[in-house]
Write a structure and sequence with these properties.
The chain is built from six helices and twelve strands. The protein is of the alpha+beta class and 263 residues long. The longest helix has 16 residues, at 130-145. It is globular and about 50 Å long. The structure holds zinc ion. The site of zinc ion has 7 residues, from strand 8.
């Protein structure tokens, strides 16, 4: 069976895409530019604009635990139960304490054997939508297969976060996006997006296979692109997206849309 997945096209400000002759964009309801991020920083952010991509999954690719429609339809109680049944441990955060977040939680244990760890000091940035939790659960087997048991992120929830260039609301405002910057093995060794996603050519296609790619970059790219192929995240911004994403990958869950952005 052809496991390839055609990713819908939606373009904004993607020079490379225009050069490649991709049709002009629909106005996106997602941000079109990113953020400057480091551990614990609180820039605005996340965003999209994409090229047409055909994403081939690798043999160890993850699979989504639910469809977009099923994820979109889950209410907070169903989502919490779904995560608990799969071993996820978390505290439920009152929605009044996490405005804008649907079914907010804060993890208190690993997801599928992978610890999701905030690299900064603000516990607020650890709050996430339960729907992001479901996608991270789906990603965990691939992360484990690649040798990682921990992801360090710069932030997930940033109240009111907006994308710098467009002013649109960022996925971080709803706790639905994670800025992953370190992928860490049990022995403490790690891949860092800043160092190991060495090619930071803005506008370069993200997911097509590359000849002679450094191993570390290949591992990171494969993890991200397999997650896209599995439809775990719908807005993905890599170091090819813009200069703000030189050190992290923005992975955002948007079950309410029928497109995927990867750049
Ligand atoms: Zn982000």
């Amino acid at each position: 069976m052809d496991r390839a997945m055609v990713i819908a096209v939606l373009l904004v400000g993607c020079e490379a895409c225009v050069r490649e002759g991709v049709p002009p964009p629909e106005p996106p309801s997602v941000p079109s530019s990113g953020e400057g991020i480091g551990p614990g920083s609180s820039g605005s952010g996340g965003g999209a604009a994409s090229g047409a991509s055909r994403v081939e999954a690798s043999p160890s690719a993850p699979s989504a635990l639910v469809t977009r429609a099923e994820l979109e339809a889950m209410d907070a109680r169903e989502c919490h139960a779904f995560v608990r049944e799969r071993g996820g441990r978390f505290e439920v955060i009152p929605e009044a304490d996490a405005r804008g977040v649907i079914a907010p939680i804060r993890l208190s244990g690993p997801l599928g054997g992978v610890t999701i760890e905030h690299g900064g000091r603000s516990r607020m940035h650890e709050i996430m939508s339960c729907k992001l939790t479901v996608s991270l659960l789906g990603w965990a087997p691939a992360l484990r297969a690649a040798g990682f048991d921990r992801i360090e992120h710069a932030s997930i929830y940033r109240p009111g976060a907006r994308v710098r260039s467009t002013g649109r609301q960022s996925g971080h405002a709803g706790g639905g996006a994670i800025d992953a910057f370190h992928f860490i093995r049990p022995d403490g060794t790690r891949l860092e997006v800043e160092r190991d996603w060495a090619d930071k050519t803005i506008g370069a296609p993200v997911c097509p296979p590359r000849q002679g790619e450094p191993e570390a970059q290949h591992v990171l790219r494969t993890l991200v692109c397999d997650a896209v192929a599995a439809d775990l995240f719908q807005v993905v911004v890599t170091p090819h997206g813009d200069r703000h994403h030189h050190n992290h990958v923005h992975l955002e869950v948007r079950p309410d849309v029928d497109w995927t952005h990867v750049r």
